[in-house]
Design goal:
- The chain has about 80 residues and is mainly alpha-helical.
- It is built from 1 helix and no strands.
- The termini are far apart.
- About 0% of the residues are buried.
- Keywords: Membrane, Transmembrane, Transmembrane helix.
Length: about 80
């Protein structure tokens, strides 16, 4: 094997190693980003539902307060 063939083989092997490592790194990052995206979507949905529950509770409390005021007026 000549010196040039050795260098070409070495370059090819290093290229294969680097492409393998980059593939694994990209897949790892993509998976983590997807998990974070799902988590943020879930937390925003939970936040919206909590906001709706709070709004319903406040509406209920306001209507209950109005009913109490009406009852006290008629006493």
């Amino acid at each position: 094997m000549t010196e040039i063939e050795k260098l070409l083989l070495q370059t090819f092997i290093m290229g294969m190693i680097w492409s393998f490592l980059l593939q694994k790194i990209i897949l790892f990052l993509f998976e983590n980003i997807r998990k974070l995206w799902r988590k943020s979507r879930k937390s925003s949905a939970e936040f919206e539902s909590a906001k709706l529950v709070k709004k319903k509770q406040s509406n209920y409390n306001i209507s209950e307060f109005k009913n109490i005021n009406n009852l006290e007026r008629w006493k």
